[in-house]
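User: Reviewer 2 asked us to show a designed sequence for the structure in our supplementary figure. I'm pasting the structure tokens here. Could you produce the per-position amino acids so we can include them in the response letter?
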């Protein structure tokens, strides 16, 4: 993400912009809080984010995500320009599912609880030392027979020659229907900074998903609009 009216948010979320493969009920998105489900299909996502600024330029990103043999991989690229500064970034990452069903009561459905571990390696293509690592755990639960799902992330992000930062977030998804979903999330990439985001997802057919999002910092003004289109293929 590229929040521009707060230097700390810009620095801490520049790496966070690479959560490009975010899966909410196995649907790709650039949202920040990941859910534990693996992608059901291979996915190609094209994204656009526009910070609220007279000087900021939009960010464009693309990512490919696929699951094979009970694990998921993704490869992403992003281009971000702010004034005369332009950054090209790349990321490769994996998601490994865990199983919490053994900790639940025998009469619970096995899919009530899900968990996973994510590891992302990121590279700023304009900086020889611009490496970063992101690792976090995910836990998620569907609330009984309702259409509400809750997710939580907890881990860290570490940039080259920078201190390690806490990565934490919670999200809720509500299925309006089989083709419509709304999502709300609250997350932080630094101990002193937090942000929120809302998204609407529309899946007009099985091979396509459209998403619109709106986010801001809890303190200050760092409004950002986003739009994504995801194509599903394979399987």
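Assistant: Here is a per-position design you can include in the supplement:
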């Amino acid at each position: 993400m590229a929040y521009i009216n707060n230097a700390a948010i810009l620095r801490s979320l520049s790496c966070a912009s690479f959560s490009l493969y975010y899966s909410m009920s196995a649907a790709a998105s650039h949202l920040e809080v990941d859910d534990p489900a693996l992608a059901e299909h291979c996915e190609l996502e094209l994204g656009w984010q526009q910070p609220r600024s007279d000087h900021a330029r939009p960010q464009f990103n693309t990512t490919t995500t696929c699951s094979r043999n009970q694990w998921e991989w993704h490869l992403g690229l992003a281009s971000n320009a702010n004034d005369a500064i332009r950054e090209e970034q790349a990321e490769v990452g994996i998601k490994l599912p865990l199983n919490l069903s053994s900790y639940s009561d025998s009469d619970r459905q096995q899919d009530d609880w899900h968990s996973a571990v994510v590891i992302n390696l990121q590279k700023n293509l304009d900086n020889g030392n611009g490496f970063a690592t992101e690792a976090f755990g995910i836990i998620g639960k569907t609330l009984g027979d309702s259409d509400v799902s809750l997710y939580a992330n907890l881990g860290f992000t570490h940039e080259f020659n920078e201190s390690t930062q806490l990565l934490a977030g919670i999200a809720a998804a509500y299925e309006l229907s089989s083709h419509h979903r709304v999502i709300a999330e609250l997350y932080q990439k630094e101990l002193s900074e937090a942000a929120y985001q809302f998204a609407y997802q529309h899946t007009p057919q099985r091979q396509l998903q459209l998403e619109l999002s709106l986010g801001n910092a809890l303190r200050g003004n760092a409004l950002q609009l986003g739009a994504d289109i995801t194509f599903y293929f394979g399987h």
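For the response letter, you might also mention the following. The longest helix spans residues 7-16. Residues 153 and 219 are 21 Å apart (CA to CA).
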